[in-house]
What we know:
Elements (H helix, E strand, L loop, with lengths): L1 E5 L4 H12 L3 E6 L14 E4 L6 H9 L3 E4 L6 H6 L1 H21 L4 E7 H4 L19 H20 L2 E7 L1 E3 L11 H10 L5 E3 L5 E2 L1 E3 H10 L7 E5 L5 E2 H11 L7 E3 L14 H7 L7 H19 L5
Parallel strand pairs: 1-2, 1-4, 2-3, 4-5, 5-6, 6-11, 7-10, 8-13
Antiparallel strand pairs: 9-12
The protein binds nicotinamide-adenine-dinucleotide.
Amino acid sequence: MKILVTGGAGFIGSHIADAYLNAGHDVFIIDNLSTGRRKNVNERALFYEMDIRDKAVADLFAEQKFDIVNHHAAQMDVRLSVKDPIYDAENNVIGFLNIVQNAAVNKVNKVIYASSGGVIYGEQDYFPADEDHPQRPYCPYGVTKLIGEKYLFYYAVTFGLKYTAFRYANIYGPRQNPHGEAGVIAIFLQKLFRGEQPVINGDGRQTRDYVYIDDVVNANVLALSKGDGEVYNIGTGVETDVNQIYDVLNERTRANRPPQHAPAKSGEQQRSVLAIRKAASQLGWQPLVPFALGIDKTVAYFEQNELQEGGAKS
Ligand SMILES: NC(=O)c1ccc[n+]([C@@H]2O[C@H](COP(=O)([O-])OP(=O)(O)OC[C@H]3O[C@@H](n4cnc5c(N)ncnc54)[C@H](O)[C@@H]3O)[C@@H](O)[C@H]2O)c1
Protein backbone atom coordinates (compact mmCIF):
# COMPACT_ATOMS: atom_id res chain seq x y z
CA MET A 1 0.00 0.00 0.00
CA LYS A 2 0.98 3.64 -0.40
CA ILE A 3 1.16 5.11 3.09
CA LEU A 4 1.75 8.74 4.06
CA VAL A 5 3.29 9.14 7.52
CA THR A 6 3.14 12.73 8.75
CA GLY A 7 5.73 13.51 11.42
CA GLY A 8 7.87 10.67 10.07
CA ALA A 9 11.11 12.41 11.10
CA GLY A 10 9.93 12.47 14.71
CA PHE A 11 10.21 9.93 17.47
CA ILE A 12 7.06 7.83 17.00
CA GLY A 13 6.43 8.53 13.29
CA SER A 14 9.93 7.44 12.25
CA HIS A 15 9.56 4.07 13.97
CA ILE A 16 6.16 3.57 12.36
CA ALA A 17 7.60 4.44 8.94
CA ASP A 18 10.37 1.86 9.47
CA ALA A 19 7.83 -0.84 10.34
CA TYR A 20 5.61 -0.08 7.34
CA LEU A 21 8.64 -0.19 5.02
CA ASN A 22 9.74 -3.50 6.55
CA ALA A 23 6.25 -4.86 5.88
CA GLY A 24 6.73 -4.01 2.17
CA HIS A 25 4.64 -0.83 1.93
CA ASP A 26 5.60 2.31 0.00
CA VAL A 27 6.12 5.03 2.57
CA PHE A 28 5.96 8.79 2.04
CA ILE A 29 6.87 11.21 4.81
CA ILE A 30 5.86 14.82 5.41
CA ASP A 31 7.74 16.61 8.17
CA ASN A 32 8.82 20.22 8.67
CA LEU A 33 11.71 19.15 10.94
CA SER A 34 10.53 21.51 13.68
CA THR A 35 11.23 18.87 16.34
CA GLY A 36 12.03 15.90 14.11
CA ARG A 37 15.43 15.10 12.67
CA ARG A 38 16.55 14.31 9.16
CA LYS A 39 18.63 11.39 10.43
CA ASN A 40 15.48 9.63 11.72
CA VAL A 41 14.04 9.49 8.20
CA ASN A 42 14.35 6.06 6.66
CA GLU A 43 16.25 6.33 3.37
CA ARG A 44 13.78 3.95 1.70
CA ALA A 45 10.95 6.44 2.30
CA LEU A 46 10.16 9.36 0.02
CA PHE A 47 10.70 12.44 2.17
CA TYR A 48 9.00 15.80 1.71
CA GLU A 49 10.24 18.58 3.95
CA MET A 50 6.88 20.23 4.15
CA ASP A 51 4.57 21.76 6.72
CA ILE A 52 1.19 20.08 7.22
CA ARG A 53 -0.39 23.57 6.95
CA ASP A 54 1.13 24.11 3.52
CA LYS A 55 -1.11 24.42 0.45
CA ALA A 56 1.34 22.10 -1.39
CA VAL A 57 -0.09 19.25 0.69
CA ALA A 58 -3.11 19.24 -1.66
CA ASP A 59 -0.89 18.73 -4.72
CA LEU A 60 0.94 15.88 -3.05
CA PHE A 61 -2.32 14.09 -2.20
CA ALA A 62 -3.67 14.58 -5.72
CA GLU A 63 -0.42 13.30 -7.22
CA GLN A 64 0.27 10.28 -5.00
CA LYS A 65 -3.19 8.88 -4.23
CA PHE A 66 -2.29 7.43 -0.84
CA ASP A 67 -4.15 4.37 0.47
CA ILE A 68 -3.52 5.17 4.13
CA VAL A 69 -2.55 8.29 6.06
CA ASN A 70 -0.86 7.87 9.42
CA HIS A 71 -0.99 11.29 11.08
CA HIS A 72 1.65 11.88 13.75
CA ALA A 73 2.84 15.42 12.93
CA ALA A 74 1.77 17.79 15.69
CA GLN A 75 2.75 20.48 18.11
CA MET A 76 3.03 18.30 21.21
CA ASP A 77 4.51 20.57 23.87
CA VAL A 78 1.93 21.01 26.66
CA ARG A 79 3.52 24.15 28.10
CA LEU A 80 3.94 25.77 24.70
CA SER A 81 0.25 25.11 24.07
CA VAL A 82 -0.57 27.02 27.26
CA LYS A 83 1.73 29.89 26.28
CA ASP A 84 0.61 30.02 22.66
CA PRO A 85 -2.72 28.24 22.13
CA ILE A 86 -3.06 29.83 18.69
CA TYR A 87 0.16 28.24 17.44
CA ASP A 88 -0.97 24.93 18.94
CA ALA A 89 -4.30 25.13 17.10
CA GLU A 90 -2.66 26.20 13.83
CA ASN A 91 -0.70 22.93 13.84
CA ASN A 92 -3.07 20.55 15.58
CA VAL A 93 -6.38 21.78 14.19
CA ILE A 94 -5.68 23.66 10.93
CA GLY A 95 -2.70 21.48 9.95
CA PHE A 96 -4.65 18.38 10.95
CA LEU A 97 -7.62 19.51 8.85
CA ASN A 98 -5.39 20.19 5.86
CA ILE A 99 -4.31 16.53 6.01
CA VAL A 100 -7.71 15.01 6.72
CA GLN A 101 -9.69 17.15 4.27
CA ASN A 102 -7.22 16.20 1.53
CA ALA A 103 -7.49 12.56 2.59
CA ALA A 104 -11.28 12.73 2.25
CA VAL A 105 -11.24 14.54 -1.10
CA ASN A 106 -8.69 12.12 -2.54
CA LYS A 107 -10.52 9.03 -1.29
CA VAL A 108 -7.84 7.81 1.07
CA ASN A 109 -9.03 4.57 2.60
CA LYS A 110 -8.15 5.28 6.21
CA VAL A 111 -6.53 7.76 8.60
CA ILE A 112 -4.66 6.55 11.69
CA TYR A 113 -4.40 9.34 14.25
CA ALA A 114 -2.17 9.97 17.26
CA SER A 115 -4.33 11.30 20.07
CA SER A 116 -3.35 11.43 23.73
CA GLY A 117 -4.68 9.44 26.68
CA GLY A 118 -2.21 11.30 28.88
CA VAL A 119 -3.98 14.65 28.55
CA ILE A 120 -7.49 14.06 27.23
CA TYR A 121 -8.93 12.67 30.47
CA GLY A 122 -7.45 15.33 32.78
CA GLU A 123 -7.27 14.39 36.49
CA GLN A 124 -8.89 10.97 36.46
CA ASP A 125 -12.01 10.02 38.41
CA TYR A 126 -10.92 6.38 38.48
CA PHE A 127 -7.78 4.36 37.72
CA PRO A 128 -7.01 3.15 35.14
CA ALA A 129 -9.09 5.33 32.76
CA ASP A 130 -10.94 3.47 30.05
CA GLU A 131 -12.04 5.10 26.78
CA ASP A 132 -15.42 6.07 28.32
CA HIS A 133 -13.81 8.12 31.09
CA PRO A 134 -15.02 11.77 31.02
CA GLN A 135 -12.80 13.90 28.81
CA ARG A 136 -11.62 17.05 30.53
CA PRO A 137 -8.36 18.20 28.96
CA TYR A 138 -6.83 20.95 31.06
CA CYS A 139 -4.40 22.28 28.44
CA PRO A 140 -4.90 23.59 24.88
CA TYR A 141 -2.86 20.66 23.53
CA GLY A 142 -5.37 18.22 25.07
CA VAL A 143 -8.25 20.19 23.59
CA THR A 144 -6.76 20.14 20.08
CA LYS A 145 -5.97 16.41 20.28
CA LEU A 146 -9.59 15.71 21.25
CA ILE A 147 -10.89 17.96 18.47
CA GLY A 148 -8.99 15.75 16.01
CA GLU A 149 -10.97 12.72 17.20
CA LYS A 150 -14.26 14.61 16.79
CA TYR A 151 -13.36 15.70 13.27
CA LEU A 152 -12.47 12.12 12.34
CA PHE A 153 -15.91 11.00 13.48
CA TYR A 154 -17.45 13.72 11.31
CA TYR A 155 -15.39 12.73 8.24
CA ALA A 156 -16.27 9.06 8.75
CA VAL A 157 -20.00 9.79 8.90
CA THR A 158 -20.03 12.34 6.09
CA PHE A 159 -17.37 11.08 3.67
CA GLY A 160 -16.98 7.42 4.67
CA LEU A 161 -13.34 8.09 5.58
CA LYS A 162 -12.28 5.26 7.90
CA TYR A 163 -10.14 6.03 10.93
CA THR A 164 -8.56 4.65 14.07
CA ALA A 165 -7.51 7.06 16.84
CA PHE A 166 -4.96 6.02 19.44
CA ARG A 167 -4.94 7.69 22.84
CA TYR A 168 -1.34 7.13 23.81
CA ALA A 169 0.04 6.99 27.31
CA ASN A 170 3.64 8.22 27.81
CA ILE A 171 5.75 6.66 25.11
CA TYR A 172 9.47 6.18 25.56
CA GLY A 173 12.33 4.67 23.57
CA PRO A 174 15.15 5.41 21.14
CA ARG A 175 14.95 8.66 19.13
CA GLN A 176 12.75 10.47 21.65
CA ASN A 177 13.60 14.14 21.56
CA PRO A 178 14.99 15.18 24.96
CA HIS A 179 14.35 18.89 24.40
CA GLY A 180 11.43 20.96 25.57
CA GLU A 181 8.70 19.27 27.51
CA ALA A 182 9.11 15.84 25.99
CA GLY A 183 9.26 12.58 27.87
CA VAL A 184 10.92 12.63 31.25
CA ILE A 185 12.89 9.48 30.44
CA ALA A 186 14.61 11.12 27.46
CA ILE A 187 15.24 14.34 29.39
CA PHE A 188 16.73 12.55 32.42
CA LEU A 189 18.87 10.25 30.26
CA GLN A 190 20.43 13.04 28.27
CA LYS A 191 21.30 14.97 31.41
CA LEU A 192 22.70 11.93 33.20
CA PHE A 193 24.93 11.03 30.24
CA ARG A 194 26.16 14.63 30.04
CA GLY A 195 27.05 14.72 33.70
CA GLU A 196 24.29 17.23 34.40
CA GLN A 197 21.82 17.10 37.27
CA PRO A 198 18.23 16.27 36.31
CA VAL A 199 15.57 17.99 38.36
CA ILE A 200 12.43 16.31 39.64
CA ASN A 201 9.49 18.69 39.79
CA GLY A 202 7.72 18.63 43.14
CA ASP A 203 7.80 15.51 45.30
CA GLY A 204 8.18 13.23 42.26
CA ARG A 205 5.11 11.20 43.15
CA GLN A 206 3.30 12.15 39.92
CA THR A 207 2.51 8.93 38.07
CA ARG A 208 2.35 8.14 34.38
CA ASP A 209 1.79 5.04 32.29
CA TYR A 210 4.98 4.31 30.30
CA VAL A 211 4.70 2.27 27.12
CA TYR A 212 7.64 1.27 24.93
CA ILE A 213 7.82 2.51 21.33
CA ASP A 214 7.83 -1.00 19.73
CA ASP A 215 4.46 -1.75 21.31
CA VAL A 216 3.06 1.51 19.94
CA VAL A 217 4.37 0.65 16.48
CA ASN A 218 2.60 -2.73 16.65
CA ALA A 219 -0.70 -0.98 17.33
CA ASN A 220 -0.15 1.16 14.22
CA VAL A 221 0.55 -1.95 12.14
CA LEU A 222 -2.63 -3.64 13.41
CA ALA A 223 -4.67 -0.53 12.61
CA LEU A 224 -3.88 -0.94 8.90
CA SER A 225 -6.52 -3.67 8.82
CA LYS A 226 -8.48 -3.40 12.08
CA GLY A 227 -10.20 -0.99 14.45
CA ASP A 228 -12.17 1.14 11.97
CA GLY A 229 -14.18 3.93 13.58
CA GLU A 230 -12.70 3.27 17.01
CA VAL A 231 -10.64 5.04 19.63
CA TYR A 232 -8.18 2.99 21.69
CA ASN A 233 -6.05 3.64 24.73
CA ILE A 234 -2.49 2.46 24.18
CA GLY A 235 -0.55 2.06 27.41
CA THR A 236 0.28 -0.63 29.94
CA GLY A 237 -2.18 -0.10 32.81
CA VAL A 238 0.83 0.26 35.13
CA GLU A 239 1.54 3.47 37.07
CA THR A 240 5.13 4.52 37.67
CA ASP A 241 6.14 7.68 39.49
CA VAL A 242 8.95 10.08 38.60
CA ASN A 243 11.03 9.06 41.63
CA GLN A 244 10.99 5.45 40.42
CA ILE A 245 12.00 6.55 36.92
CA TYR A 246 14.85 8.60 38.33
CA ASP A 247 16.13 5.73 40.50
CA VAL A 248 16.09 3.24 37.62
CA LEU A 249 17.88 5.61 35.22
CA ASN A 250 20.39 6.73 37.82
CA GLU A 251 21.24 3.09 38.46
CA ARG A 252 21.31 1.95 34.79
CA THR A 253 23.52 4.86 33.70
CA ARG A 254 25.73 4.38 36.79
CA ALA A 255 25.55 8.17 37.20
CA ASN A 256 25.30 7.83 40.96
CA ARG A 257 23.65 11.21 41.50
CA PRO A 258 21.23 11.69 44.39
CA PRO A 259 17.86 13.03 43.19
CA GLN A 260 17.26 16.78 43.32
CA HIS A 261 13.80 18.27 43.60
CA ALA A 262 12.50 21.65 42.41
CA PRO A 263 9.18 23.33 43.27
CA ALA A 264 6.18 21.59 41.73
CA LYS A 265 4.97 22.94 38.37
CA SER A 266 1.55 24.46 38.84
CA GLY A 267 -1.25 22.63 37.09
CA GLU A 268 0.72 19.44 36.55
CA GLN A 269 -1.46 16.35 36.41
CA GLN A 270 -0.92 14.08 39.40
CA ARG A 271 -1.87 10.60 38.19
CA SER A 272 -2.41 9.12 34.78
CA VAL A 273 -2.87 5.47 33.84
CA LEU A 274 -4.83 3.87 31.01
CA ALA A 275 -7.02 0.76 30.77
CA ILE A 276 -6.08 -1.22 27.67
CA ARG A 277 -8.76 -3.91 27.56
CA LYS A 278 -10.44 -2.47 24.45
CA ALA A 279 -7.28 -2.63 22.31
CA ALA A 280 -6.60 -6.13 23.63
CA SER A 281 -10.04 -7.48 22.80
CA GLN A 282 -10.67 -5.70 19.48
CA LEU A 283 -7.20 -5.38 17.95
CA GLY A 284 -5.51 -8.33 19.63
CA TRP A 285 -2.93 -5.83 20.88
CA GLN A 286 -0.88 -6.19 24.06
CA PRO A 287 2.15 -4.33 25.36
CA LEU A 288 4.86 -6.96 25.05
CA VAL A 289 8.03 -5.14 26.10
CA PRO A 290 8.61 -5.25 29.87
CA PHE A 291 9.61 -1.94 31.45
CA ALA A 292 13.11 -3.18 32.41
CA LEU A 293 13.86 -4.27 28.84
CA GLY A 294 12.46 -1.08 27.31
CA ILE A 295 14.57 0.99 29.68
CA ASP A 296 17.71 -1.00 28.83
CA LYS A 297 17.18 -0.42 25.09
CA THR A 298 16.51 3.27 25.64
CA VAL A 299 19.57 3.70 27.87
CA ALA A 300 21.73 1.95 25.25
CA TYR A 301 20.44 4.28 22.52
CA PHE A 302 21.05 7.46 24.50
CA GLU A 303 24.51 6.30 25.54
CA GLN A 304 25.44 5.59 21.92
CA ASN A 305 23.88 8.83 20.74
CA GLU A 306 25.74 10.92 23.30
CA LEU A 307 29.03 9.21 22.38
CA GLN A 308 28.46 9.85 18.66
CA GLU A 309 27.40 13.45 19.13
CA GLY A 310 29.97 14.11 21.81
CA GLY A 311 27.38 15.84 23.92
CA ALA A 312 26.66 18.30 21.10
CA LYS A 313 23.13 19.59 20.70
CA SER A 314 21.20 16.70 19.20
N1 LIG B 1 5.46 10.91 22.84
C1 LIG B 1 4.36 10.67 23.53
O1 LIG B 1 4.41 10.14 24.64
C2 LIG B 1 3.00 10.99 22.94
C3 LIG B 1 1.87 10.80 23.74
C4 LIG B 1 0.62 11.10 23.21
C5 LIG B 1 0.48 11.53 21.90
N2 LIG B 1 1.60 11.72 21.13
C6 LIG B 1 1.42 12.20 19.75
O2 LIG B 1 2.23 11.44 18.88
C7 LIG B 1 2.66 12.27 17.81
C8 LIG B 1 4.15 12.17 17.61
O3 LIG B 1 4.81 12.55 18.82
P1 LIG B 1 6.37 12.33 19.06
O4 LIG B 1 6.57 12.01 20.48
O5 LIG B 1 6.90 11.41 18.02
O6 LIG B 1 6.90 13.83 18.84
P2 LIG B 1 7.99 14.40 17.83
O7 LIG B 1 8.08 15.85 18.15
O8 LIG B 1 9.23 13.58 17.90
O9 LIG B 1 7.30 14.17 16.42
C9 LIG B 1 6.44 15.10 15.80
C10 LIG B 1 6.95 15.31 14.40
O10 LIG B 1 6.04 16.16 13.71
C11 LIG B 1 6.79 17.14 13.01
N3 LIG B 1 5.94 18.33 12.90
C12 LIG B 1 5.46 19.11 13.90
N4 LIG B 1 4.69 20.09 13.41
C13 LIG B 1 4.68 19.93 12.06
C14 LIG B 1 4.07 20.64 11.00
N5 LIG B 1 3.33 21.73 11.22
N6 LIG B 1 4.26 20.19 9.73
C15 LIG B 1 5.03 19.10 9.49
N7 LIG B 1 5.64 18.40 10.46
C16 LIG B 1 5.46 18.80 11.73
C17 LIG B 1 8.02 17.39 13.85
O11 LIG B 1 9.11 17.93 13.13
C18 LIG B 1 8.32 15.97 14.36
O12 LIG B 1 9.16 15.28 13.46
C19 LIG B 1 2.15 13.68 18.10
O13 LIG B 1 0.95 13.86 17.36
C20 LIG B 1 1.84 13.65 19.57
O14 LIG B 1 0.79 14.54 19.90
C21 LIG B 1 2.86 11.46 21.63
